[in-house]
Structures are given as structure tokens and as C-alpha cells.
Specification:
This protein is of the alpha+beta class and 389 residues long. It has helices spanning 58-63, 111-123, 128-138, 141-149, 163-181, 187-196, 201-204, 215-220, 222-234, 242-254, 270-294, 316-323, 339-344, 351-354, 357-366, 371-381, and strands at 16-30, 36-44, 47-53, 69-79, 82-92, 205-206, 212-213. The chain has 3 domains: 6-102, Nucleic acid-binding proteins (OB fold (Dihydrolipoamide Acetyltransferase, E2P)); 111-294, no CATH class; 339-381, no CATH class. A hairpin with a 2-residue loop joins strand 2 (36-44) and strand 3 (47-53).
Length: 389
């Protein structure tokens, strides 16, 4: 097991470290003087790190490839508020030196408890055909093992071991809540769609060394794979209604919601539309959460540009903590005016000093202002009052 992870950068700033990483991105670039340098994104299970090798790159360029595991020696430092490494030495690791658990990020949740949540939802189905179909999938031990470990995506959201199950359970929860608010929605059909909508990721993605696409995934995509998996299970359920089959197929192929996002059909019935929007919502909320976590050490509440969302993000918790700091309420009793206050009033006691004791005590007992009150006070202090003749 590694003794340094990328999440440990803060405690080793400006120090030389030696550790193992997987190469997420490898690029050979040119300096202004025309010399080559290596630009890398190194990864382990705790995150990613930009790394640059500026000198003596001739041998290093051909010694390893993207997705290889490497041993690196370099100095950690910050550049524009972000962690980077200047690499001095680098070599490819041998197979015996690799502990795969060091490199792939993994859900922090208990996958067995997550799977039990799926089982509980399926057990609550009222439609016997949909219940039998999902139970057929869940009786497949190899499929269940893969479902518990697969990531939900390569990079955009839930891109970690166990990410698919994490995403589906979250989606089950919001689908269940939304279906209570819209009685015209068939809950069982919606939840069946949630279970199936990304099940093709089991074969579309590989996650042995890093998360990448399989050949089948590149050529077919997960929706085509899901239709194949669905038809295989339906073949064992004699008499399954043709109408339900068509609805399930449409849920699968329309869940991306737009032609340009890979759906050959737009959602055309309530459960399909709801599945698309709730899937998109859960994906985007996780993408935001993950970016806030990656950039937690930044002082600014604004993140860097998020390519998938096409915007920078505001961490509202950090924004409120930093932007709404207010003075503590005055202590009970008759406060002594500060020298500054007296000077500003030409030696006269400040208005605060003239405040009756009872009123001062009342203010103190009221306690610190809420975030909303503090913001309101901030606006009031900047308000311009027009002069009157």
C-alpha cells in the first residue's frame, strides 16, 4: 500500500516525495524555446494531480504510456492555487509492485447495504411481471458482483468503483419520492427503468487499471448493450407482456433525453421523461459534489471551470461561511465607548454608549444574527439615501 496519496498534498507542500501513481493523461508538449516537456495527470484513489517534467525528458517519453503505473520522484507545490508536482525522476512499475486498490477511487458507502436497498425496493413492486424481470437480473450472481463494483461513468459522474450502484440507489430514492407527487406515474415502471438505464455499463466500461471503455463499449455503447441484456432475460419469462417490453425498451433508449446526447428517441411518456430528468439531476448533483470535494483546499468559494457543466461552480456553504462573518453581539451591560468611536464623534459618547441598559441586554439575549439577517444588514449598510432639499 502507498504511503502517500494525492489527498495528502497539503501536509507536504514544497517537499520532495516519492510515490506510485497511474498515468491518467500523458501529453508531450513544447516549451517556448521549442524543447519538449512532459505534461501528466497522475491519479490514485484519492484524486488527480497535475505533474510536469521539464528536463531530461528524452528517455522518459518512451518509457511508459497512458494508463501505465509509474514511480515518481518530485516536488509538490502550488501553482495558481492548485497542487502540482515538478517531476525529477520517473519509471514504469513492474506488475509485482502494483496494488490495484491504491489507484481506483471507491465509494465510501457500504455496497452490501446499497444492494439491500435495491432488493427492498424491488420487493415492494406491485406489478408481478416487472418484479419477476428484475428478480431474474438479481438472481445472476456474476451480474450482481459486477453491479456492486462498476463505475457509473468514465469521468462525468460517479466515476469510481461502486459508482453505478451508488447512482442507482440515489435515483431509486428520488424516483420513489417524485412518483408520490405525481399519481399518474407508474412507480414500478419508473423504478424498473432506473434499474436498467445504465446496466450496460457493466460491459461498456473496464476498471482494472483505470476507468476506460471496452471495445464493445466503444463500438456499441451502453444502451445497445442494455437492450441485449433485457432481451436475454425476457427470453426466460414466458408470456411477458409485449406492451411492457416496448415501454422498457423506450425507457432505455430515451433516458439521455436529447438526440445530441445519444438518445435515438426523445422521452415520450411520463415515466420516460421523469427518468431522464431525475437521472440528469442526480448525475449533475454528484458532479458538483465531487468538484467541491476535489477543490476543498481552495480559499475561494468558486471552483475552476467544469467542462461537463460548462461553467464554474459556487460552493454556497463556503461562500456563506466566508462572506457573512459578522461581529459578535454586544455584551450585556453598558459598554465603554472605544477611543475610535469617541474621536469620530468629537469626543462625545457614541450612540451605542447612550443606549439604555435594558435595550442593550435585549440585543445581547437575542443572539447572533442569522445568515439572512447578516446579508440584509450588509445591503442596508451600502444603501444610498437620496438627499432632500
Amino acid at each position: 500500500m502507498k504511503d502517500f496519496y494525492i489527498c495528502d498534498c497539503a501536509r507536504l507542500e514544497n517537499q520532495t516525495i516519492t510515490s506510485h501513481f497511474v498515468v491518467a493523461v500523458k501529453q508531450v508538449k513544447s516549451k517556448k524555446n521549442g524543447e519538449l516537456y512532459l505534461s501528466l495527470i497522475l491519479a490514485d484513489r484519492s484524486g488527480q494531480l497535475q505533474a510536469n517534467m521539464w528536463d531530461n525528458v528524452g528517455d522518459a517519453i518512451s518509457n511508459f504510456d497512458q494508463d501505465d503505473f509509474i514511480k515518481v520522484k518530485g516536488i509538490l507545490h502550488k501553482y495558481n492555487g492548485r497542487w502540482q508536482m515538478t517531476v525529477h525522476k520517473i519509471r514504469k512499475l513492474g506488475e509485482s509492485e502494483i496494488d490495484y486498490s491504491d489507484y481506483l477511487p471507491k465509494t465510501s458507502k457500504d455496497v452490501d447495504k446499497l444492494w439491500q436497498t435495491v432488493c427492498d425496493y424491488v420487493a415492494s413492486f406491485q406489478n408481478p411481471w416487472l418484479k419477476s424481470l428484475l428478480e431474474a437480473f438479481m438472481a445472476d450472481e456474476a451480474l450482481v458482483a459486477a453491479y456492486k463494483n462498476a463505475p457509473a461513468a468514465k469521468t462525468l459522474h460517479h466515476a469510481f468503483v461502486g459508482g453505478l450502484l451508488d447512482h442507482v440507489v440515489s435515483l431509486f430514492n428520488v424516483c420513489d419520492l417524485a412518483s408520490r407527487n405525481y399519481p399518474q406515474v407508474n412507480r414500478d415502471l419508473l423504478l424498473a427503468g432506473a434499474f436498467l438505464h445504465d446496466i450496460g455499463k457493466l460491459h461498456e466500461l473496464s476498471y482494472q487499471r483505470s476507468i476506460t471503455y471496452t471495445t464493445k463499449g466503444q463500438l456499441l455503447g451502453h444502451m445497445i448493450i442494455e437492450l441485449e441484456m433485457l432481451h436475454e432475460k425476457l427470453a426466460g419469462l414466458s408470456g411477458f407482456p409485449a406492451e411492457l417490453k416496448i415501454l422498457l425498451e423506450h425507457l432505455i433508449i430515451s433516458h439521455h433525453g436529447q438526440y445530441e446526447f445519444g438518445s435515438p428517441k426523445l422521452p415520450m411518456f411520463p415515466e420516460a421523461l421523469m427518468l431522464h430528468y431525475l437521472d440528469d439531476l442526480d448525475s449533475k448533483m454528484e458532479a458538483m459534489r465531487a468538484q467541491f470535494e476535489r477543490e476543498a483546499d481552495l480559499e475561494t468559494p468558486w471552483t475552476s471551470y467544469n467542462p461537463s457543466l460548462a461553467r464554474p461552480l459556487l460552493n454556497t456553504q463556503k461562500f456563506l461561511e466566508k462572506g457573512l462573518e459578522t461581529p459578535k453581539p454586544a455584551a450585556a451591560g453598558n459598554p465603554t465607548p472605544s477611543p475610535v468611536a469617541e474621536e469620530e464623534n468629537d469626543g462625545e459618547p457614541s450612540k451605542a454608549a447612550e443606549q439604555p441598559e435594558a435595550e442593550t441586554v435585549a440585543v445581547a439575549e437575542k443572539g447572533a444574527p442569522t445568515a439572512f439577517e447578516a446579508l440584509q444588514r450588509k445591503f442596508e449598510s451600502h444603501k444610498v439615501t437620496p438627499k432632500t432639499n
